[in-house]
Write a structure and sequence with these properties.
This protein has 316 residues and is α/β, with parallel strands linked by helices. It has helices at 11-22, 54-58, 76-81, 83-101, 139-158, 183-193, 212-225, 243-254, 259-263, 284-287, 297-311, and strands at residues 2-6, 26-31, 44-48, 66-69, 108-112, 162-167, 169-171, 197-200, 206-211, 231-235, 240-242, 266-269, 278-279. A seven-stranded parallel sheet has the order 3-2-1-4-5-6-10, sandwiched between helices. Helix 5 links the parallel strand 5 and strand 6.
Protein backbone atom coordinates (compact mmCIF):
# COMPACT_ATOMS: atom_id res chain seq x y z
CA UNK A 1 0.00 0.00 0.00
CA UNK A 2 1.18 3.54 -0.75
CA UNK A 3 1.06 6.42 1.72
CA UNK A 4 1.48 10.11 0.90
CA UNK A 5 2.64 12.15 3.92
CA UNK A 6 2.10 15.86 3.25
CA UNK A 7 4.33 17.65 5.74
CA UNK A 8 6.63 14.65 5.88
CA UNK A 9 9.77 16.58 6.82
CA UNK A 10 8.47 17.56 10.26
CA UNK A 11 8.64 15.90 13.67
CA UNK A 12 5.44 13.84 13.33
CA UNK A 13 5.92 13.18 9.62
CA UNK A 14 9.34 11.59 10.06
CA UNK A 15 8.19 9.28 12.85
CA UNK A 16 5.07 8.32 10.92
CA UNK A 17 7.08 7.59 7.76
CA UNK A 18 9.54 5.44 9.70
CA UNK A 19 6.74 3.38 11.23
CA UNK A 20 5.00 2.84 7.89
CA UNK A 21 8.27 1.71 6.30
CA UNK A 22 8.85 -0.74 9.17
CA UNK A 23 5.44 -2.25 8.32
CA UNK A 24 6.51 -2.81 4.71
CA UNK A 25 4.55 0.09 3.22
CA UNK A 26 5.66 2.50 0.50
CA UNK A 27 5.94 6.14 1.60
CA UNK A 28 6.17 9.33 -0.40
CA UNK A 29 6.84 12.30 1.86
CA UNK A 30 6.16 15.82 0.63
CA UNK A 31 7.72 18.87 2.23
CA UNK A 32 9.05 22.37 1.57
CA UNK A 33 12.42 21.75 3.21
CA UNK A 34 15.38 20.17 1.45
CA UNK A 35 15.69 16.44 2.08
CA UNK A 36 17.90 15.36 4.96
CA UNK A 37 19.47 11.94 5.59
CA UNK A 38 17.20 10.89 8.45
CA UNK A 39 15.33 8.25 6.39
CA UNK A 40 17.06 6.07 3.80
CA UNK A 41 14.90 3.22 2.55
CA UNK A 42 14.19 1.67 -0.83
CA UNK A 43 10.44 2.22 -0.36
CA UNK A 44 10.80 5.86 0.68
CA UNK A 45 10.79 8.91 -1.57
CA UNK A 46 10.97 12.55 -0.57
CA UNK A 47 9.51 15.19 -2.86
CA UNK A 48 10.44 18.79 -2.16
CA UNK A 49 7.90 21.26 -3.41
CA UNK A 50 4.95 23.53 -2.77
CA UNK A 51 1.71 21.68 -2.04
CA UNK A 52 -0.17 24.79 -3.21
CA UNK A 53 0.97 23.78 -6.69
CA UNK A 54 -1.83 21.50 -7.83
CA UNK A 55 0.21 20.25 -10.80
CA UNK A 56 2.96 19.18 -8.39
CA UNK A 57 0.43 17.20 -6.33
CA UNK A 58 -1.38 15.82 -9.40
CA UNK A 59 1.88 14.24 -10.57
CA UNK A 60 2.44 12.48 -7.23
CA UNK A 61 -0.92 11.32 -5.90
CA UNK A 62 -2.54 8.26 -7.43
CA UNK A 63 -5.76 6.30 -7.04
CA UNK A 64 -5.93 4.19 -3.85
CA UNK A 65 -3.24 6.21 -2.06
CA UNK A 66 -3.75 6.95 1.62
CA UNK A 67 -3.00 10.63 2.24
CA UNK A 68 -1.97 11.94 5.65
CA UNK A 69 -2.13 15.73 5.76
CA UNK A 70 0.19 17.17 8.43
CA UNK A 71 1.52 20.35 6.83
CA UNK A 72 1.01 23.65 8.65
CA UNK A 73 3.14 26.76 8.39
CA UNK A 74 2.81 28.46 11.76
CA UNK A 75 2.36 27.93 15.51
CA UNK A 76 -0.10 29.61 17.91
CA UNK A 77 2.35 32.35 18.89
CA UNK A 78 3.25 33.40 15.34
CA UNK A 79 -0.36 33.12 14.21
CA UNK A 80 -1.33 35.60 16.93
CA UNK A 81 1.38 38.01 15.75
CA UNK A 82 0.29 37.78 12.10
CA UNK A 83 -3.18 36.24 11.65
CA UNK A 84 -3.42 37.26 7.99
CA UNK A 85 -0.24 35.35 7.18
CA UNK A 86 -1.56 32.36 9.11
CA UNK A 87 -4.68 32.27 6.92
CA UNK A 88 -2.84 32.97 3.66
CA UNK A 89 -0.22 30.26 4.18
CA UNK A 90 -2.53 27.53 5.41
CA UNK A 91 -6.15 27.78 4.27
CA UNK A 92 -5.51 28.06 0.49
CA UNK A 93 -3.00 25.20 0.89
CA UNK A 94 -5.73 22.98 2.34
CA UNK A 95 -8.20 23.80 -0.41
CA UNK A 96 -5.54 23.12 -3.07
CA UNK A 97 -4.86 19.72 -1.53
CA UNK A 98 -8.54 18.81 -1.23
CA UNK A 99 -9.25 19.92 -4.80
CA UNK A 100 -6.62 17.49 -6.07
CA UNK A 101 -7.72 14.60 -3.87
CA UNK A 102 -11.32 14.63 -5.05
CA UNK A 103 -10.09 13.86 -8.58
CA UNK A 104 -7.84 10.98 -7.58
CA UNK A 105 -10.12 8.33 -6.05
CA UNK A 106 -7.82 7.96 -3.06
CA UNK A 107 -8.33 5.28 -0.41
CA UNK A 108 -8.52 7.72 2.49
CA UNK A 109 -7.55 11.18 3.77
CA UNK A 110 -6.43 11.67 7.35
CA UNK A 111 -6.30 15.32 8.33
CA UNK A 112 -4.19 16.01 11.42
CA UNK A 113 -5.87 18.90 13.21
CA UNK A 114 -5.13 20.19 16.74
CA UNK A 115 -6.68 18.84 19.93
CA UNK A 116 -4.60 21.34 21.85
CA UNK A 117 -6.11 24.49 20.30
CA UNK A 118 -9.46 23.60 18.70
CA UNK A 119 -11.46 23.51 21.92
CA UNK A 120 -10.23 26.74 23.49
CA UNK A 121 -10.91 27.55 27.14
CA UNK A 122 -13.27 24.89 28.45
CA UNK A 123 -15.32 25.56 31.59
CA UNK A 124 -14.40 22.31 33.32
CA UNK A 125 -11.29 20.35 34.32
CA UNK A 126 -12.36 16.95 33.03
CA UNK A 127 -11.08 15.39 29.80
CA UNK A 128 -12.51 16.99 26.67
CA UNK A 129 -14.64 14.90 24.30
CA UNK A 130 -14.84 15.38 20.54
CA UNK A 131 -18.42 16.60 21.04
CA UNK A 132 -17.24 19.60 23.09
CA UNK A 133 -18.04 22.95 21.52
CA UNK A 134 -15.06 24.41 19.69
CA UNK A 135 -13.99 27.91 20.70
CA UNK A 136 -10.36 28.34 19.62
CA UNK A 137 -8.67 31.43 21.05
CA UNK A 138 -5.79 31.74 18.58
CA UNK A 139 -5.74 32.34 14.81
CA UNK A 140 -3.87 29.01 14.60
CA UNK A 141 -6.77 27.17 16.20
CA UNK A 142 -9.35 29.07 14.15
CA UNK A 143 -7.62 28.18 10.88
CA UNK A 144 -7.21 24.55 11.95
CA UNK A 145 -10.94 24.43 12.65
CA UNK A 146 -11.70 26.07 9.29
CA UNK A 147 -9.65 23.38 7.54
CA UNK A 148 -11.67 20.74 9.40
CA UNK A 149 -14.85 22.36 8.08
CA UNK A 150 -13.48 22.37 4.53
CA UNK A 151 -12.46 18.72 4.90
CA UNK A 152 -16.04 17.95 5.93
CA UNK A 153 -17.38 19.97 3.00
CA UNK A 154 -15.24 18.13 0.44
CA UNK A 155 -16.11 14.81 2.05
CA UNK A 156 -19.84 15.41 1.95
CA UNK A 157 -19.98 17.18 -1.42
CA UNK A 158 -17.45 15.07 -3.34
CA UNK A 159 -17.43 11.80 -1.33
CA UNK A 160 -13.81 12.30 -0.25
CA UNK A 161 -13.23 9.58 2.41
CA UNK A 162 -11.95 11.58 5.36
CA UNK A 163 -11.11 11.12 9.03
CA UNK A 164 -9.91 13.91 11.31
CA UNK A 165 -7.41 13.43 14.12
CA UNK A 166 -7.05 15.92 16.96
CA UNK A 167 -3.76 15.16 18.76
CA UNK A 168 -2.97 16.57 22.18
CA UNK A 169 0.67 17.63 22.76
CA UNK A 170 3.07 15.15 21.15
CA UNK A 171 6.65 14.84 22.37
CA UNK A 172 9.61 12.61 21.67
CA UNK A 173 12.88 12.20 19.86
CA UNK A 174 13.58 14.62 16.96
CA UNK A 175 11.50 17.38 18.56
CA UNK A 176 13.63 20.50 18.66
CA UNK A 177 13.54 22.97 21.57
CA UNK A 178 12.96 26.72 21.43
CA UNK A 179 10.50 26.48 18.51
CA UNK A 180 7.46 27.90 20.34
CA UNK A 181 5.92 24.44 20.67
CA UNK A 182 7.03 21.40 22.62
CA UNK A 183 7.46 22.39 26.26
CA UNK A 184 9.25 19.16 27.24
CA UNK A 185 11.90 19.53 24.53
CA UNK A 186 12.34 23.21 25.42
CA UNK A 187 12.73 22.42 29.13
CA UNK A 188 15.47 19.91 28.32
CA UNK A 189 17.06 22.36 25.89
CA UNK A 190 17.07 25.05 28.60
CA UNK A 191 18.85 22.68 30.97
CA UNK A 192 21.49 21.69 28.43
CA UNK A 193 22.05 25.29 27.33
CA UNK A 194 22.02 26.56 30.91
CA UNK A 195 19.44 29.21 30.09
CA UNK A 196 16.26 30.18 31.98
CA UNK A 197 13.03 28.37 31.19
CA UNK A 198 9.98 30.56 30.62
CA UNK A 199 6.63 29.57 32.14
CA UNK A 200 3.59 31.70 31.36
CA UNK A 201 1.17 32.36 34.19
CA UNK A 202 1.70 31.90 37.91
CA UNK A 203 0.54 28.28 37.76
CA UNK A 204 1.64 27.61 34.21
CA UNK A 205 -0.61 25.46 32.03
CA UNK A 206 -1.88 21.88 32.16
CA UNK A 207 -1.40 19.81 29.03
CA UNK A 208 -2.05 16.28 27.80
CA UNK A 209 1.32 14.96 26.59
CA UNK A 210 1.32 12.03 24.16
CA UNK A 211 4.53 10.21 23.29
CA UNK A 212 5.19 10.29 19.55
CA UNK A 213 5.08 6.50 19.05
CA UNK A 214 1.63 6.41 20.64
CA UNK A 215 0.39 9.23 18.43
CA UNK A 216 1.65 7.40 15.35
CA UNK A 217 -0.03 4.16 16.41
CA UNK A 218 -3.24 6.10 17.00
CA UNK A 219 -3.14 7.60 13.50
CA UNK A 220 -2.58 4.15 12.01
CA UNK A 221 -5.46 2.77 14.07
CA UNK A 222 -7.79 5.38 12.58
CA UNK A 223 -6.56 4.57 9.06
CA UNK A 224 -7.13 0.84 9.46
CA UNK A 225 -10.17 0.62 11.70
CA UNK A 226 -12.32 3.68 11.15
CA UNK A 227 -15.03 2.72 8.67
CA UNK A 228 -16.97 5.95 9.08
CA UNK A 229 -16.82 9.21 7.14
CA UNK A 230 -16.08 12.57 8.73
CA UNK A 231 -15.45 11.11 12.16
CA UNK A 232 -13.18 13.03 14.51
CA UNK A 233 -10.82 11.33 16.95
CA UNK A 234 -8.93 12.79 19.90
CA UNK A 235 -5.54 11.18 20.44
CA UNK A 236 -3.88 11.86 23.78
CA UNK A 237 -3.01 10.27 27.09
CA UNK A 238 -6.05 11.57 28.94
CA UNK A 239 -3.76 12.67 31.77
CA UNK A 240 -2.97 16.29 32.58
CA UNK A 241 0.55 17.42 33.47
CA UNK A 242 1.48 20.95 34.49
CA UNK A 243 4.70 22.70 33.48
CA UNK A 244 5.98 22.05 36.98
CA UNK A 245 5.11 18.33 36.71
CA UNK A 246 7.30 18.21 33.60
CA UNK A 247 10.22 19.82 35.42
CA UNK A 248 9.85 17.50 38.40
CA UNK A 249 9.81 14.47 36.10
CA UNK A 250 12.98 15.59 34.30
CA UNK A 251 14.67 16.02 37.69
CA UNK A 252 13.65 12.53 38.77
CA UNK A 253 14.61 10.66 35.62
CA UNK A 254 17.90 12.52 35.22
CA UNK A 255 18.97 11.80 38.78
CA UNK A 256 20.38 15.33 38.60
CA UNK A 257 23.19 13.92 36.44
CA UNK A 258 23.32 17.28 34.69
CA UNK A 259 24.13 19.82 37.38
CA UNK A 260 22.01 22.46 35.66
CA UNK A 261 18.86 20.40 36.31
CA UNK A 262 18.91 21.28 39.97
CA UNK A 263 20.12 24.83 39.37
CA UNK A 264 17.85 25.66 36.44
CA UNK A 265 16.26 29.08 36.59
CA UNK A 266 12.58 29.49 35.86
CA UNK A 267 11.08 32.76 34.66
CA UNK A 268 7.42 33.16 35.62
CA UNK A 269 5.98 35.50 33.00
CA UNK A 270 2.46 36.90 32.51
CA UNK A 271 -0.01 34.48 30.98
CA UNK A 272 -0.39 34.78 27.21
CA UNK A 273 -3.77 35.39 25.61
CA UNK A 274 -3.45 32.45 23.21
CA UNK A 275 -2.57 29.84 25.87
CA UNK A 276 -5.49 27.82 27.21
CA UNK A 277 -4.95 27.07 30.93
CA UNK A 278 -6.19 23.47 30.70
CA UNK A 279 -6.26 20.99 27.85
CA UNK A 280 -6.67 17.25 28.44
CA UNK A 281 -8.42 15.01 25.93
CA UNK A 282 -10.97 12.27 26.40
CA UNK A 283 -9.84 9.47 24.07
CA UNK A 284 -12.59 6.93 24.72
CA UNK A 285 -13.75 7.15 21.08
CA UNK A 286 -10.47 5.94 19.59
CA UNK A 287 -10.05 3.50 22.48
CA UNK A 288 -13.28 1.87 21.24
CA UNK A 289 -11.34 1.03 18.06
CA UNK A 290 -8.80 -0.89 20.16
CA UNK A 291 -6.11 1.77 20.63
CA UNK A 292 -4.49 2.79 23.91
CA UNK A 293 -1.24 4.64 24.65
CA UNK A 294 1.54 2.20 25.48
CA UNK A 295 4.29 4.54 26.72
CA UNK A 296 3.95 6.24 30.10
CA UNK A 297 4.73 9.92 30.50
CA UNK A 298 7.79 9.11 32.64
CA UNK A 299 9.17 6.59 30.12
CA UNK A 300 8.64 9.03 27.28
CA UNK A 301 10.44 11.84 29.12
CA UNK A 302 13.31 9.48 29.91
CA UNK A 303 13.62 8.56 26.24
CA UNK A 304 13.67 12.16 25.02
CA UNK A 305 16.16 13.08 27.77
CA UNK A 306 18.53 10.33 26.65
CA UNK A 307 18.09 11.29 23.00
CA UNK A 308 18.89 14.94 23.68
CA UNK A 309 22.04 14.00 25.59
CA UNK A 310 23.50 12.31 22.51
CA UNK A 311 21.91 14.21 19.61
CA UNK A 312 21.20 17.75 20.68
CA UNK A 313 23.78 20.45 20.04
CA UNK A 314 23.89 23.52 22.24
CA UNK A 315 22.83 26.81 20.79
CA UNK A 316 25.91 28.85 19.81
Amino acid sequence: MRYIVIGGSGFIGKHLSEKLLSLGEEVIAIGRRAQDDFIRHKHYSYMQGDSNDTTFLENIIQANDTVIYLAYNSIPKTSFENPIKDIQENLPLAISIFSVLIRKNIRKLIYISSGGTIYGKVKHTTPIKESEETHPISPYGITKLAIEKYANFYSEMYKLPTSIVRPSNPFGELQEPFRGQGFIATAIGAIMNEVPLDIYGLNGTVRDYIYIDDLVSGILCVIEKDRNVNHIYNIGSGIGKSNFDVIDTIRKISGNEHETVEKMKINILPARDFDVPYNVLDCSKIEALGWKPAISFETGVERIWEWHKTHYKKKP
